Amino acid sequence: MSFERPMHLDFPLAAEKDEIRLLKLRPGTWDEPLQCQFWIVEISQKPDYVALSYVWGDATHSYCIQVDGRPLGVTENLYSALQRLRAHAHDREIVLWIDAICIYQGSISERNRQVAMMGRIYAHCREVWIWLGQMSSPEASDLRWSTNASESDRICYKFHGDESDYDEKWSEYQSAFPATERAGNNPSIAGEPTREVSSSEIVFHCAWILRLLAAGKHLNEIRPFSGGDTAVSEYLGRVLRSMEDLVNNEWFSRLWVVQEAVLAPSARVFFDFVSFPLRVIEDAKTLHAHTRARCCVPLGTQQLYFSEAIKNITGGFAEISQMQNESPTPNSSRTLFQL
Ligand SMILES: [Zn+2]
């Protein structure tokens, strides 16, 4: 494969124009090969695309996608991102800009030109999708726990950050807990889950905790804190470990990728099979206000660790909104991309 003519050369970018390659990802079921096509556009013509922000991870190109019928090696992290994004899109085609694929890495001159355009590429996309990766626990992607959702819903839970989030996925979350007081949007139900909670379900519960914090709920209105019991809980420990997966994500430690989110008009965060508008995670920092007001600060050791984890997650994203508020322009950011 390495002796073949690189497919990028069949889709050349004109050096004198602001051309980029976009990747059209075709719909498909979970196990089907990832089928894509290149599409060359000029940024000035305002093409509609989503830019992906992620870390390359292990540089071994041990996974394969199809681009215009030919195999292209990608890293495991990128492969899992594409597989998950395709599932999120259901039966729609998605148009992506992804640095590792859309830039021909074998050409230094093309790379230099494209890297110089990256500020504009992110500023002109419809949205940036931040891929934080799969949860690290081996069972985290075991999607079999959900029996009452369609196949696509089992693979993806999309949060919108508004009232429409309180739909079947809210019922599904609530179904893990005691049935009393289970009414409307009121999450003030005491206690621990009443049934076995799988690893992937824990990820989903983390998502709901962030979502409820973003909605301004007090910690004592959110399970598993609402029981008022500060004893060490196995369930809370598992929630905490998943939160730590998020906090310790390599994405946050890379100025390069964080910068991409700052430039984009809007951003959505994907972790494992859950996605959020970036604003929801930013809004979850209301936890700080509760800590200051001491209205609902939990006292148990695990709860305190949990508060720290949430602070670190929201703190990472708060830096992004702060940078956004400082109104960077694509030009001023260019130097950052050239570091
Ligand atoms: Zn409070």
UniProtKB/TrEMBL annotation:
Q: Domain Heterokaryon incompatibility, which positions? A: 49-260
Q: What InterPro entries is this protein classified in?
A: HET (IPR010730), HetReg/Transcr_Mod (IPR052895)
What name goes with this protein? Heterokaryon incompatibility protein-domain-containing protein
Q: Which organism is it from?
A: Clohesyomyces aquaticus
